[in-house]
Design a protein that fits this description.
The protein is α+β, with helices and mostly antiparallel strands and 95 residues long. The protein has 3 helices and 6 strands. Strand 4 and strand 5 form a beta hairpin.
């Protein structure tokens, strides 16, 4: 896998913005098959930062309905990345 196969999208919400300011942590949606080592290498190559810790979690898809039709949203994997003090990811600065 290359870096663009592992990292899918950053997650930007009020909670992740609070994590960024207080604990220098960033959240990403990642490929469900990726492990912590692959995620760490991808983030360090893509953003040129030092990663201290990674926490991953599998998010189950929710049941949704539209009128009489119902289905499920896709399940996905989330990674919370803690960076070394002083490092930052500029993509999140404009948000």
């Amino acid at each position: 896998m290359n870096i663009f196969d592992v990292l899918r999208a950053p997650i930007m919400s009020e909670k992740t913005m609070t994590l960024k300011e207080e604990a220098n942590q960033f959240a990403f949606e990642v490929d469900p098959r990726a492990n912590k080592i692959q995620i760490k290498e991808s983030i360090e190559k893509a953003f040129k930062v030092s990663v201290l810790k990674i926490r991953t979690m599998n998010v189950r898809g929710k049941k949704k309905r539209l009128g009489r039709y119902q289905g499920y949203k896709s399940s996905w994997k989330k990674a919370l990345v803690t960076l070394k003090q002083g490092d930052t990811i500029e993509f999140f600065e404009g948000a």
